């Protein structure tokens, strides 16, 4: 199935996505480790069924030096030994923050406590904003049926300025 609508060719959508990319740049420039950013984005995108974002974040993570083993195991991080305790806390937050409708309490106190144990205030802020931003990005791409497979690492770097 082809995309329903090209967000990159519409003036309103293009202006919105430019600002969206600039919001992402704040997170990208934060002290939250880049590998954690990509793993969190990948996991949320897997949950939300966003092929475009899974493609993007897999390729961006690989280009930044992430191992194929870790990328392949993100979907099963609880049953894997390749993630640090800090990464596991971030992945739990990504899952619980992405599945709000599935859990009436949202992010559990246990997960929040683990996040606070491993990340400072600026990193927590970046992590919370990242979970919100990737979920919004997933919705944009899924609604218009933007398919994965054509993304190239660094494709939007210049646009985010």
Describe the model.
The chain is an all-alpha fold. It has one domain (32-150): Up-down Bundle (AhpD-like), CATH 1.20.1290. It has eight helices and no strands. The radius of gyration is 15 Å and the shape is globular. The mean pLDDT is 93. It holds the Pfam family CMD. This is Alkylhydroperoxidase.
Topology:
Layout: H1 11-28, H2 34-47, H3 51-63, H4 68-73, H5 85-98, H6 109-118, H7 121-143, H8 157-160
Helix pairs in contact: 1-7, 2-3, 2-5, 2-7, 5-6, 5-7
Helical residue percent band: 55-70%
In the predicted model, the low-confidence regions spanning at least 5 consecutive residues are none
Our count of helices gives 8
User: What characteristic shape results from the CA principal axes?
Assistant: globular
Number of domains: 1
Strand-residue fraction? Answer: under 5%
Largest sheet: none
Radius of gyration: 15 Å
Can you identify the CATH superfamily?
A: AhpD-like
CATH C-level class is Mainly Alpha
Distance between the termini: 32 Å
Q: How many beta strands in the DSSP annotation?
A: 0
SSE string, helices as H and strands as E: HHHHHHHH
Looking at the overall shape, the CATH architecture is Up-down Bundle
Kindly report the CATH topology.
AhpD-like
Average pLDDT, all residues:
93
Domain Carboxymuconolactone decarboxylase-like: 23-96
GO molecular function, one term: peroxiredoxin activity
InterPro entries: AhpD-like (IPR029032), AhpD_core (IPR004675), CMD-like (IPR003779)
Protein name: Alkylhydroperoxidase
């Amino acid at each position: 199935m082809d995309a329903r609508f090209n967000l990159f060719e519409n003036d309103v959508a293009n202006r919105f996505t430019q600002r969206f990319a600039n919001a992402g740049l704040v997170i990208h420039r934060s002290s939250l480790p880049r590998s954690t950013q990509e793993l969190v984005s990948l996991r949320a995108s897997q949950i939300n069924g966003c092929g475009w974002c899974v493609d993007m974040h897999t390729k961006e993570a690989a280009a930044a030096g992430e191992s194929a083993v870790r990328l392949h195991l993100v979907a099963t991080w609880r049953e894997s030994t390749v993630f640090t305790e800090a990464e596991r806390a971030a992945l739990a937050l990504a899952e619980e923050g992405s599945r709000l409708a599935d859990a009436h309490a949202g992010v559990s106190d246990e997960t929040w406590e683990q996040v606070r144990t491993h990340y400072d205030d600026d990193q927590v802020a970046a992590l919370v904003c990242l979970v919100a931003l990737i979920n919004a990005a997933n919705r944009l791409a899924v609604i218009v049926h933007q398919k994965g497979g054509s993304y190239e690492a660094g494709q939007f770097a210049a646009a985010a300025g």
